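Hi V.,

Quick status before I head out on leave. The structure for the redesign project is tokenized and pasted below; the design run finished overnight.
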């Protein structure tokens, strides 16, 4: 077709704008959009607002305009963003709580309660004690000058350190002075217990007649659990 035979674009556009839409087509499309939005939980069907028509106002179809934030894909993206933000904040809060719980000092009451609880387990269970203790005996030197020398090692075992440290070595010893078994809990790389000094001091006494004394030195917290009077096992004792 020659250029002089091509129809004017404006004439075509005007002709297309005058074509009548099928009855109800616009409303059906908008109803479908609202239904899909309601199914996705983004916008209740009752909240889909209607506005007056600004084009073809003489028709029976009344157009409904959904805001961009109400469309399903925008809602899903917003919801994912909210969940991601909440998850990130939760992780940060848990990390901060964990750091706080670990770095804050332990109390002597926590130490005594943990030791007495473990003591109940050691006395009631058939605990497995390691007897290759000769290389580890120098660890007990931390009690030198406080623990009477008339003792005989029976064994040791490793366990969790509860509120004080990650690990704890428990010694099972026999006192030749009292002819009774007693226990030494050695917490290495332990948290500070402000009330403790470098000398053993009494912390608690259980209803079963066990006394708990403790000290701290060079990043270690040492607890001695004895049955009966502590002065039968120790050279000296500092009052709490």
């Amino acid at each position: 077709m020659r250029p002089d035979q091509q129809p004017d674009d404006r004439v075509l556009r005007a002709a297309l704008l005058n074509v009548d839409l099928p009855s109800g087509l616009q409303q059906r499309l908008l109803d479908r959009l609202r239904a899909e939005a309601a199914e996705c939980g983004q916008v209740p069907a009752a909240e889909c607002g209607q506005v007056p028509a600004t084009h073809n106002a003489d028709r029976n179809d009344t157009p409904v305009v959904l805001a961009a934030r109400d469309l399903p894909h925008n809602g899903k993206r917003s919801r994912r963003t909210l969940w991601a933000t909440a998850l990130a904040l939760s992780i940060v809060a848990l990390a901060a709580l964990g750091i706080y719980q670990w770095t804050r000092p332990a109390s002597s009451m926590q130490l005594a309660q943990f030791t007495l609880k473990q003591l109940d387990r050691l006395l009631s269970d058939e605990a497995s004690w390691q007897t290759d203790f000769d290389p580890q005996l120098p660890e007990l030197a931390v009690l030198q000058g406080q623990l009477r020398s008339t003792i005989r090692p029976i064994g040791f075992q490793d366990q969790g350190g509860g509120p004080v440290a990650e690990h704890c070595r428990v010694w099972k010893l026999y006192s030749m002075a009292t002819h009774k078994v007693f226990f030494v809990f050695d917490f290495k790389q332990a948290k500070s217990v402000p009330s403790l000094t470098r000398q053993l001091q009494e912390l608690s006494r259980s209803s079963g007649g066990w006394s708990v004394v403790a000290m701290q030195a060079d990043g270690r917290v040492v607890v001695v659990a004895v049955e009966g009077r502590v002065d039968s096992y120790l050279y000296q004792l500092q009052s709490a």
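Above is the designed sequence. Residues 72-103 form the longest helix (32 residues).

G. will cover questions while I'm gone.

Best,
W.
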